[in-house]
Design a protein that fits this description.
metal ion binding; single chain; protease; metalloendopeptidase activity; zinc; 9 helices; 3-stranded mixed sheet; two-stranded antiparallel ribbon; mainly alpha
Length: 272
């Protein structure tokens, strides 16, 4: 059996020890870690970020971000809608936002320049919440752990039959194959799923689903050259926009029902 065949067997063997489950959209998910472990990791990471980053004191912006978040949280599936989500606005000009296990959300002030409406801000925060509810952090850590186990087993098998130079070349090729063939596409699938979940949440909260594609147009315009999609951890901007536009029609009836039932959200975007 050739070295890459044996390594493939090793990767498969490592994969069978991973807990199998489904994501909110029905995609097969691999999770090695418990929810409590991920919540603890999220809380520690959040505390570290709050120590390293300057926290905004702009009360109007803080209230605005909190208002949009509260609307989204109220529309989440149980048990997430019944939990208290901690929100922090950071005084940083970077267009960035994140959410962590344990109901932690961070938004950078620079994102408010890119998300030009409350609907677009809802798309950002909804997307990040989607990562948490789909347990993408758990999957990401699990896939990296499984890949690491496979690499170690493959190295042991290769070393038993081949000289050091051949083993080194084989492991380098395997490392690139794991990175490009497993870890990066996995992350792209997470991003696409979080886009879809975010649109679902914003529609249920009364925010216009069409704003999601508009947001990513703004994001694409604000960034420089992008890496090829197959080498990126994110879908290309055009792929993402097209997917959001296709999904928009599915979310629009929910949005219209929400607006008919309770009216438009009343979160007020601060003037510049």
């Amino acid at each position: 059996m050739r070295v890459w065949q044996k390594v493939t067997v090793s990767l498969i063997g490592a994969a069978v020890i991973v807990a199998c489950s489904q994501s909110p959209t029905g995609r097969s998910a691999l999770r090695l870690f418990s929810g409590s472990e991920m919540d603890q990791l999220g809380a520690r990471t959040y505390a570290e970020i709050k120590k390293e980053e300057k926290i905004s004191t702009d009360r109007r912006k803080i209230a605005y971000v909190q208002c949009v978040t509260d609307d989204l949280v109220a529309a989440l599936p149980a048990p997430y809608s019944g939990k208290r989500w901690e929100v922090t606005l950071f005084a940083n000009d970077e267009a960035n936002a994140f959410a962590l296990p344990g109901e932690k959300i961070g938004v950078y002030e620079g994102m408010l320049d890119v998300a030009k409406t409350r609907d677009q801000l809802a798309a950002v925060i909804g997307h990040e919440i989607g990562h948490v509810i789909a347990e993408h952090g758990n999957e990401r850590m699990s896939s990296q752990t499984a890949a690491g186990i496979g690499m170690q087993l493959g190295g042991i098998l290769a070393a038993s039959e081949f000289d050091q130079e051949t083993v080194g070349l084989a492991m380098a090729v395997l490392g690139a194959g794991v990175q490009i063939g497993i870890l990066l596409p996995y992350s792209r699938s997470h991003e696409s799923e979080a886009d879809q979940l975010g649109v679902d949440y914003m529609a249920k909260a009364g925010y216009d689903p069409a704003a999601a594609a508009k947001l990513w147009r703004n994001m694409a315009a604000s960034k420089g050259a992008q890496p090829p999609e197959f080498l990126s951890t994110h879908p290309s901007p055009q792929s993402r926009i097209q997917a959001l536009e296709r999904y928009e029609s599915q979310a629009m009836p929910v949005y219209k029902q929400t607006i008919a039932r309770k009216g438009q959200p009343d979160c007020q975007r601060p003037s510049s």
